[in-house]
Design brief:
The complex is a heterodimer of chains A (353) and B (315). Helix content of chain A is 24%, strand content 36%. In chain A, the strands form four sheets. Chain A has a six-stranded mixed β-sheet, sandwiched between helices. Chain A has eight helices and 19 strands. Chain A is elongated, with a radius of gyration of 24 Å. Chain B is 75% helix and 0% strand. Chain B has helices at residues 2-23, 25-55, 71-77, 80-112, 118-130, 133-143, 150-157, 171-199, 203-212, 216-244, 248-253, 265-275, 279-305. The N and C termini of chain B lie far apart (73 Å). The chains are: A alpha+beta (353), B mainly alpha (315). The A-B interface holds A 50-52, 72-73, 77-79, 81, 83, 85, 87-90, 98-99, 102-103, 130-134, 146, 150 and B 202, 204-205, 207-215, 218, 222-223, 226-227, 307-315. Chain B: Its main location: membrane. Chain B: It holds the Pfam family BPD_transp_1.
Chain lengths: 353, 315
């Protein structure tokens, strides 16, 4: 186990820079999730950490050692690939023991460690099978087993769950988290799925267009997004955004599209008339007499909660209610956001105010 | 009036019989197979059967033969030229196939790397395969010529040898010369086919092996070779079959000489049957090739079967 330091790392393919100076400190034993939309550079960063891509500038260290020029096989890391990259011509046992075999470990040692890893992952009955004979979830576990057997400094996961169906994905999510709690190996996990990030991470790194937008614990990111991108990326259904201006006439209010008035807890200093983006999470709406006029468009009950799509000032917003209101499309209701949970962003920079 | 009605009824009956026949799956299926069966019988089964039959007769050109059982084979078994041709064929096949495999695999690995002008290099590699055999054979004939050989000329100019090499006059020189010509011609097929095989191996397997600590050599041994083995089995079977039955190269370059040193079973068969007129004996020599070919096919068949990892899910 080791800490990992990523310092001002840049990556260019030819003249095209895809990572613009990324710095991420990762503590020993931490579970860090790199999350962002496709093309944000998260997978490239992971591959640089593994040594599969060169580092254009900056440094990556594992433990106390700068690994910029260290061969992948000498970095003492294990990676789980998106397509698992299991060796199709080797049995499950051989797949898991391959790295030990290459290190000339004795066959007793290999057997012992493969057996132990297989027990952890419930793969014991499958050791003689070939990858072709396994289901998706089993292959996923073999790929993890291959990583565990090595007992590496760092685990890297590159979107490991994206090839699984929804139900299995949820199950494997828990399994990976449990595994990390048990082994406590430093883990860097790449995904584009913010729910995976929220549920698994000790620390989430939100990336976008080759930069880090924000780092923090899942709830920090949820409760205090530093900018509009993070606010919109984390959370499902996504945060509602309305463009408008701050009005300070004794009490601070937000004036949205078509004159919609929405409450503010307090206005930023000297901000009367300032163009802002008003952000409110779907679950922070309530039905109240002093709310804004809204017309219901679509109602989607999921059982545990109901998602309501409505027009406020001509803009569509989504609200989530755990209570069972009787709504029908076309109904007029009054929606009121909880002013203490409202987020304000600068209209030009997207920064949190 | 009545007659007309009757003939109309008959017409309806006849057409309905046809319609019904064509609506039957079995009949329609059989009809679709007729062209394929006809072609197979006419161009494959009939010549093969005729060859078998001729091998059992003493047919000569211009005269009908009679059945003589296995006498052709008995006399061949006492014929030293026949046994020399068997030896030549096996030597030619084994030597050429091994080298073709080695060079082909090397080229395939090279072409699978990032190379400048990759597609152009690949096209160039294919050239020997594209040139008509006889044309390239004539070129080799010139290269091996006892007076005008460019190889001898270069070596003499370079001061490495003092006399022109007698490529096609000495038995072993001649054998190696035709093997070299066959290799030149056969390498592209092996190289391109293996290259296609290499391209099906997922790069992430190499990355995984890299992280697992494999050196280049180990990656080749533990990933490339086993993953490529099914393609190797197929391409080498084809290569062995084509080399074993080779005719054009030998016939153009040496005609089996000197003193039968490069006669393959195929060229000897042609010489005895067509040039010599003994169709029966020639056919018998051809038939003698069949056990070797069947053995080669069976070998690769069982070689292919062994790779259990390729077979699908079975719980």
């Amino acid at each position: 186990m080791s800490s990992v330091q990523i310092r001002d790392v840049r990556k260019s393919f030819g003249n095209f820079e895809v990572l613009h100076g990324v710095s991420i400190p990762i503590e020993d034993g931490q579970f860090v999730v790199l999350v962002g939309p496709s093309g944000c550079g998260k997978s490239t960063l992971l591959r640089m950490l593994a040594g599969l891509e060169n580092i254009t500038s900056g440094t990556i260290s594992i433990g106390d050692r700068v690994v910029n020029n260290v061969q992948p096989k000498e970095r003492d890391i294990a990676m789980v690939f998106q397509n698992y990259a299991l060796y199709p011509h080797m049995t499950v046992g051989e797949n898991m023991g391959f790295s030990l075999k290459l290190r000339n470990a004795s066959s007793d040692e290999i057997n012992k460690r493969v057996k132990r890893a297989a027990e952890i992952l419930a793969l014991s009955p499958l050791l003689e099978r070939y990858p072709r004979q396994l289901s998706g979830g089993q292959r996923q576990r073999v790929a993890m087993g291959r990583a565990i057997v090595r007992d590496p400094q760092v685990f890297l996961f590159d979107e490991p769950l994206s090839n699984l169906d929804a139900k299995l994905r949820v199950a494997m999510r828990t399994e990976i988290k449990e595994l990390h709690q048990r082994l406590k190996t430093t883990t860097v996990y790449v995904t584009h799925d913010q729910i995976e990030a929220m549920t698994m991470a000790d620390k989430i790194v939100v990336m976008h267009d080759g930069i880090v937008e924000q780092m923090g614990t899942p709830l920090e990111l949820y409760d205090k997004p530093e900018n509009q991108f993070v606010a919109g990326f984390i959370g499902s259904p996504a945060m509602n955004f309305l463009k408008g201006h701050v009005r300070v006439n004794g009490v601070a209010t937000f004036e949205g599209p078509n004159g919609v008035k929405l409450p503010l807890k307090s206005a930023p200093a000297a901000s009367d008339g300032r163009p802002v983006v008003y952000g409110v999470r779907p679950e922070h709406f309530t039905i109240a007499d002093d709310g804004a006029d809204a017309e219901i468009v679509v109602v989607e009950p999921t059982g545990s909660e109901t998602q309501v799509f409505a027009k406020v000032g001509g803009e569509q917003v989504v609200a989530v209610f755990r209570e069972r209101h009787q709504f029908n499309p076309g109904d007029k209701v009054k929606l009121k956001p909880d002013p203490s949970l409202v987020h304000l962003f600068d209209d030009a920079t997207g920064k949190r105010l | 009036m009545a007659v007309m009605a009757e003939s109309a009824v008959a017409q309806v009956k006849r057409s309905s019989m046809w319609t019904r026949a064509f609506e039957s799956r079995n009949f329609l299926g059989a009809m679709f197979m007729v062209p394929a069966i006809a072609i197979l019988i006419l161009f494959l089964a009939y010549p093969l059967a005729l060859g078998f039959w001729l091998g059992m007769t003493d047919t000569k050109i211009g005269g009908a033969g009679r059945y003589i059982g296995f006498q052709n084979f008995v006399s061949l078994s006492k014929d030293s030229v026949f046994w020399l041709s068997v030896f030549n064929t096996i030597f030619y096949t084994v030597a050429a196939s091994l080298v073709k495999f080695a060079i082909g695999l090397y080229l395939a690995l090279l072409l699978n790397e990032r190379l400048p002008f990759k597609s152009m290099v690949r096209a160039i590699v294919l050239l020997p395969f594209v040139v008509p055999t006889v044309l390239s054979a004539i070129a080799f004939w010139w290269i091996y010529d006892s007076q005008f050989s460019i190889i001898s000329w270069v070596l003499i100019k370079a001061g490495l040898i003092t006399r022109y090499i007698d490529f096609l006059g000495d038995p072993w020189n001649a054998r190696w010369s035709v093997v070299a010509a066959n290799i030149w011609r056969g390498v592209p097929f092996v190289a391109i086919t293996l290259l296609a095989g290499l391209q099906t191996i997922s790069p992430s397997l190499y990355e995984a092996a890299n992280l697992d600590g494999a050196t280049n050599m180990q990656r080749f041994r533990h990933i490339t070779l086993p993953m490529l083995s099914p393609i190797i089995a197929v391409v080498m079977t084809f290569s062995v079959l084509m080399t074993f039955t080779d005719f054009q190269l030998i016939y153009t370059i040496t005609r089996g000489g000197p003193i039968n040193a490069t006669h393959l079973m195929a060229t000897l068969s042609f010489q005895r049957a067509i040039t010599g007129g003994n169709l029966g004996e020639g056919a018998a020599i051809s038939n003698a090739m069949i056990p070797f070919l069947v053995a080669a096919i069976l070998l690769s068949f069982f070689g292919l079967q062994r790779s259990r990892w390729q077979q699908g899910g079975r719980d």
